[in-house]
Design goal:
The protein is α/β, with parallel strands linked by helices. The protein has a domain at 82-318: Alpha-Beta Complex (Spore Coat Polysaccharide Biosynthesis Protein SpsA, Chain A), CATH 3.90.550.10. Helices cover 58% and strands 10% of the residues. It has helices spanning 2-65, 67-76, 99-110, 130-140, 158-169, 189-194, 216-237, 253-258, 274-280, 304-316, 323-353, 358-386, 394-413, and strands spanning 89-95, 117-123, 144-148, 174-178, 182-184, 203-205, 208-210, 249-252, 286-288, 296-298. The strands form two sheets. A seven-stranded mixed β-sheet has the order 3-2-1-4-8-6-9, with helices on both faces. The chain has a three-stranded mixed β-sheet with strand order 5-10-7. α4 (130-140) links the parallel β2 and β3 (144-148). α1 runs parallel beside α12 and α3 (99-110) packs parallel to α4. The radius of gyration is 31 Å and the shape is elongated.
Length: 421
């Protein structure tokens, strides 16, 4: 009986021990399997976000960023219908303490090939020799006129007031805006802009090229300007106009006064150009001038502080943009951010978890980045060639990451200037 009892007790102890071992093994193996499944699922999700983001970015590149190239091709092959009439044009230029620049700049505007136009220079409180320079030029060019802002004006936006004063003094049917720091690319600049005013068109948006005049900062600014031009031109050409530059834009004088000028935007110190387009333009009444003859060239070399403030000024007007314009602007930025973050995260997680398909994952990520880089470099450099600019190679890949981050930091940590620029 003793032996039988001992045998039963030993069996019971053995059974309990086996059960504990089983439970222990189960507790050890289950979390490992669970973690492995979770890590694999997480990797699949992140890779999916990376591929999806890249697909949307490529859609932007191939549809919107190349729109200016397609428009230029259509123009070269005579597939664009232009207006053959020559209505009177009033070129409005705002100046402030730029007497030396006006000496060389104004003849480029005053000697355009267009048959019927006037140049209205609005003096925004200059205290240099601007009046003397203009008076001397008026003797040679009778179609040059100058008007001045009231010195005691206390309006928030002097630029909007200056344009309004110029528009009231204008006799032309079309108001063409530019700035003393932007040179017309050719003597046919006015012709190229005005020919786009076909039936129903009220706004014509031209581009302003920022040349790479040497130096790292100028290279960055030239690339930033080129990308912004590609983006804005693409959306404008695809029927979603949202911005323009006062360095090169035109609209009907009747449209300006029918919309009460800058009514509804006077609380903004800046935004006389992009807010005008954003508030009143649409896919039917707006055209883009894609050719080089209709472009202007910015000859100034902004400092980093000036460039930083310019980007802050551009950001300050976004609160008055249409919701659709904001969606168009930020969608590509959002997915570009998602692409880079998800790609980096996928690389790190693959290295950490080392799944069986690790090499395949690396090949997918590298292949996607190479595809994106090839499309980006081709699009940017084809547009740069169209604008007679220097090519961007490695710098384009770096700036594609740097510029969105720099813009974000500038808008978060930079204040608008208290004094007028």
């Amino acid at each position: 009986m003793k032996n039988t009892a001992n045998l039963v007790n030993n069996f019971h102890i053995s059974a309990l021990s086996d059960e504990k071992i089983f439970v222990t093994l189960q507790n050890i193996s289950t979390p490992n399997i669970f973690n492995r499944k979770m890590s694999t699922t997480l990797l699949y999700i992140i890779l999916g976000i990376s591929v999806l983001s890249l697909s949307i970015i490529l859609i932007y590149y191939t549809i919107y960023y190349t729109a200016i190239l397609r428009a230029s091709w259509r123009e070269r092959h005579n597939k664009v219908i232009y207006n053959t009439e020559k209505p009177k044009v009033s070129v409005i230029i705002i100046t402030r303490n730029l007497d030396e620049e006006l000496e060389s700049y104004l003849p480029l505007i005053l000697e355009q090939s267009y048959p019927d136009y006037e140049v209205i220079l609005v003096n925004d409180g200059s205290w240099d020799n601007t009046e003397e320079v203009v008076r001397r030029l008026c003797e040679t060019y009778p179609h040059l006129y100058m008007t001045s802002l009231p010195k005691d004006s206390r309006i928030v936006s002097h630029r909007k007031l200056a344009i309004t004063v110029g528009a009231k003094a204008a006799k032309g049917d079309i108001l063409l805006l530019t700035e003393p720091t932007s040179r017309p690319f050719s003597p046919h600049w006015i012709d190229s802009m005005v020919r786009n005013f076909t039936t129903g068109v009220e706004f014509v948006v031209g581009n302003c090229v920022m040349l790479d005049n040497g130096g790292l900062l100028q290279h960055v600014i030239a690339y930033d300007t080129l990308i912004n031009t590609m983006r804005s031109s693409g959306f404008n050409l695809m029927g979603h106009p949202y911005t323009a530059t006062s360095r090169n834009m035109a609209y009907l004088r009747s449209t300006f006064f029918r919309n009460n000028g800058f009514a509804g935007m006077l609380h903004q110190e800046y935004g006389d150009d992009d807010l005008m387009i954003n508030c009143h333009s649409n896919n039917l009444n707006t055209k883009i001038e894609p050719t080089l003859s209709g472009h202007t060239i910015c000859v100034e070399k902004p400092t980093y502080r000036e460039w930083r403030f310019l980007k802050k000024i551009q950001f300050s007007t976004l609160g008055d943009y249409r919701l659709g314009s904001l969606f168009s602007m930020f969608t590509e930025h959002f997915f570009r951010f998602c692409y880079y973050v998800s790609t980096i995260a996928a690389f790190v997680l693959i290295l950490y978890f080392k799944p069986e398909w690790m090499m395949v994952g690396f090949e997918v990520l590298i292949g996607c980045y190479l595809l994106k880089s090839i499309v980006l470099l081709w699009t940017v450099n084809a547009t740069a060639a169209l604008y007679k600019q220097k090519k961007f190679w490695i710098s384009a890949l770096v700036l594609d990451i740097y510029l969105p981050l720099a813009t974000l930091c500038i808008n978060l940590f930079t204040r608008l200037p208290k004094k007028r620029l």
